[in-house]
Amino acid sequence: MQGSSIRVALLMLALAPFGLQASEPATEKVPEYALDASWPKLPLPNRWALGLINGIHVDANNHLWMFHSPELVPNYARGAAQTPPTGKCCVPAPAIIEFDEQGEVLRAWGGPEQAKGYDWPTAGHGLFVDYKGNIWIGGSQTRVGADGSPPDGMYLKFDPNGKFLLQIGGRGPSKGSLDPSRLSGASAVDVDPETNEAFIADGYGNHRVIVFDADTGEFKRQWGAYGKPPTDEKLPRYDGGPTLPKQFNLVHCIRIANDGLVYVCDRLNNRLQVFRKDGTFLAEYVYEPQTRGSGSVGNVSLWPDAQQTFMVMNDPGNFQTVLIRRADGKVLSRFGHFGTWAGEYHRNHQMEFDRKGNIYTSEDHRVQRLKIVNGVTPR
């Protein structure tokens, strides 16, 4: 299999009404990108420093929301936070930060020390802004940590000012991929505005997509790879050969398109699976099948035109940004390289379009913005 391999034989007639087309579309002009060094405005206020970036998302106002781990700001960068201070730099920033388009901080809140009446994640993972403007975050720790910290089995919902609204699940080890009462290393969520359902990629410990009412937390349904019931069978990761695993390995992203298609990243199996919202399997795309390490399918984000023509995919194992045609999963362009210089990628974790088609990329301790340089914009 070369680059993108598409397993959709015998399915294409069924897929056409759901946005996947059997015919080859006309050649599109694809956006090209360069680093936008103007974003964010630096230095951050209040002598803030960032830990690991757990999640990013762009809201309806084209503001970038960031979730990071204040507790993972290294000790050598905490001098200003000591009593008495041991240096001018720095202070860990609050866990959740909102930036405007120009890169200015608008508000910030959250962190384990502020959690009252709910379980703050031990190892934060994922951030999503729903259609009501609410903020969702999860956690990826699946075992008791070396320091005794508990596993993450929850997803949390807040209003934009940090008021706690809902907890789905709770701390503790997995109860299995069929149990709806606790998550295990849930990595991402998307909320469907048509049904007000929260679709959770559950994820690092369990092997499923699980769906809840986004206001009450009531369990609705769940599924594993190919829409089958999820299992906890210990399966090896994909080896790049012709036979693909029958179960998810690491469910690392979930994204619902305007036409109702649900895209699920199976990161360590180097594939993207496509479903209807009821869990019916439609298609599978495999990318760079020989990739080991962090895998090749980290997350996807949808181009902000009406048809959501393109997707941007984060390829963490190859340190690249990948632009994909959504209609058939074909790779249209790839770019990026490992490194710590501006414009390079170091442990790239997530990539998201904004409302104008620019791309935000998250890594350890930083988010970068890539701007369109060839005039191709959403229409």
TrEMBL record:
<dbReference type="InterPro" id="IPR001258">
    <property type="entry name" value="NHL_repeat"/>
</dbReference>
<feature type="signal peptide">
    <location>
        <begin position="1"/>
        <end position="22"/>
    </location>
</feature>
<keyword id="KW-0677">Repeat</keyword>
<dbReference type="Pfam" id="PF01436">
    <property type="entry name" value="NHL"/>
</dbReference>
<dbReference type="InterPro" id="IPR011042">
    <property type="entry name" value="6-blade_b-propeller_TolB-like"/>
</dbReference>
<keyword id="KW-0732">Signal</keyword>
<protein>
    <recommendedName>
        <fullName>NHL repeat-containing protein</fullName>
    </recommendedName>
</protein>
<keyword id="KW-0325">Glycoprotein</keyword>
